[in-house]
Amino acid sequence: MTLLQGGPRSRAGNPIRFRSPLRGPWLTSVFGAVLLAALPLVVITGLLDYVAYGPGQSIPGDVGWLHLPFFDWPTRPSWLFRLTQGLHVGLGLVVVPVVAAKLWSVIPKLFTWPPVRTPAQLLERASLLLLVGSILFEIVTGLLNIQYDYVFGFSFYTGHYLGAWVFVAAFVTHVSLKLPTMVRSLRSRSLRAELRTPLADTRPEEPDGEIGLVPTAPAAPTMSRRGALALVGGGALFVAALTAGETVGGPLRPLALLLPRSRNPGGADAGANEFPVNRTAAAATIHSAATGPSWRLDLRGGRVAQRLDREMLLSGNGPLPLHTARLPIACVEGWSTVQTWTGVRLRDLATLAGVPNPASAFVDSLDPGPFGRATLSAGQVLDPESLLALRVNGADLSADHGFPARVIVPALPGVHCTKWVRSIDFRAV
């Protein structure tokens, strides 16, 4: 798109060349309307994911008055977390081309001098600075997090969460200030007419006065507005095609080029265990000696602790019948998958431990890392499809997928579906 002379001037007073005849309040408002519809959904699903981790487990934990009210995250529908996390990551990636187009459309405003003439302009410029800075921070940190393992010099979770609140404050302020202008601009032209206008008939928008986006000396157009909209829309659809496989799976899974973990075939194992894995046994420093024949599951909570080996759990006899459930597992990095799990119900284990109606359960694993333990609510323990899984798709769990036993709970974030479980403490209060 050609640059356009006129309008903004540099600090030295020289004209800055922004000559594209496509720039103007209408095109900027179209991109803004798309973001106004999409970005709140990205924010809401992200905050719901924070709540899904549960009290005492959400990261960051100490956020002062930014702390959200927690509630027992439901286990039904079983695909709830898969939906919220998939929308948060997937839609967040899809809007990147629209964000880039919106920034391109308003770039002349960055070079306006003097930058502030009135207190209202000061508020607008400050909100815009925070808005642009926070959304770029969220995009960059989000992209790096789904691509690589913890490459930051700070906590991704803390930075991303606090950055989200900065964005929310700036977004609400900016929308409050600019919504009337956006509505007027959208009414100034017909979208249907613009989509029928070819390059040869493309003309600059009418002079926009103090808004300052329309060039005073436009160059000849090199692209029509419908072409610009098609370019941005096509970019968004292209990103969608490269990310949809992370959630829907199937033949689209190999196309998930932006989310490499979703294409991980399950570490070194194949067959029934050939589905994504985030943290491998090697990465968690799980040694085969600890998961071999000597492994035992400790059940606590009642008067007498119980200790079970894997053979006893797999026998399906007595108070611990085996149960099979087809359930999704979803990760914070954006990938999810649905598999068939076989194991012992957590509620049956609670009954055996002497706590048939637990208020919660603390799961501990062989993983020494921060995600090697989790607290489950009463509803999560008592759901009829909440399992201590021993097998998947008819085969033993692989080492990378949590052998000898892992937790699978409907709608629970994958990080709390603890692998390599060694003990469960059922708590009555």
From TrEMBL:
Lineage: Bacteria, Bacillati, Actinomycetota, Actinomycetes, Pseudonocardiales
Membrane-crossing residue ranges in chain numbering: 26-48, 87-107, 128-148, 160-179
Domain Oxidoreductase molybdopterin-binding: 294-427
Transmembrane recorded as keyword: yes
Name used for this protein in its record: Molybdopterin-dependent oxidoreductase
Keywords: Membrane, Transmembrane, Transmembrane helix
One matching Pfam family: Oxidored_molyb
InterPro entries: Mopterin_OxRdtase_euk (IPR008335), OxRdtase_Mopterin-bd_dom (IPR000572), OxRdtase_Mopterin-bd_sf (IPR036374)
Highest rank taxon of the organism: Bacteria
Organism whose genome encodes this protein: Pseudonocardia yunnanensis
